[in-house]
Automatic annotation (TrEMBL):
PANTHER family per the UniProt record, alphabetical: PHOSPHATIDYLETHANOLAMINE-BINDING PROTEIN, PHOSPHATIDYLETHANOLAMINE-BINDING PROTEIN 4
Annotated organism of origin: Spodoptera frugiperda
Signal peptide (from-to): 1-23
Keywords on record: Signal
Protein name in the entry: Phosphatidylethanolamine-binding protein homolog F40A3.3-like
Pfam name, any one: PBP
Gene3D superfamilies per UniProt: PEBP-like
Amino acid sequence: MYRLCVLIFFIYLNNFIASPVQSDIEQKFLEYEIVPDVLSVAPTDYLAVTFPSGAEVHNGNVLTPTLVKDLPTLSWNANPDSFYTVANVDPDVPSHAEPTQGQVVHWLAGNVPGDDILAGDQLMEYFGAGPGKDSGLHRYVLLVYQQPAKLDFDEPRMSNLTAENRYYFSIADFAKKYDLGDPIAGNFYRAEYDDYVPILYEQLGV
Ligand SMILES: *[C@@H]1O[C@H](CO)[C@@H](O)[C@H](O)[C@H]1NC(C)=O
């Protein structure tokens, strides 16, 4: 009996230590329903995202459009010999309650060598968060996919001086089209309207 108890105890202990504990970021992607709204599988790795304002993205924290207006720096466990696709989408357009305009793409870069995003193809140049007035908090999801190889993207290249071609996007469909699999790293923040939004709308001509 004693031996059995000891054995069970060690099996228990071993499970506890060896089972991969669901990472924070996976849990948060589920808690905030980014899975299933945006993805079917959450990334396991944490994507570090820092804005020039000093703001850091962390597991759905609340930031402001002012804090995220400029191109962030991202870091993940990148292999310098691999190509990556980096995306930033807002699935809550015009609002989380009624996202009838689907995802808006805030940033899409492909063929990123290692983690040097600006050396990749800027398919959709970065612009920051622009949640409409009184539309509540939106989720801004940042994702990194590891590409199987260097790719030929047939999407038109879009600057950040227009909102054209940014609506009704699906990062899951895009990933499927280019065989990117599931994202390897991710993170997200939330933001609602502030007085930077009209300035962004002016930049985008909307
Ligand atoms: C617009 O995109 C360019 C090229 O990626 C980038 O250098 C610039 O910072 C972006 N502007 C804003 C306001 O995000």
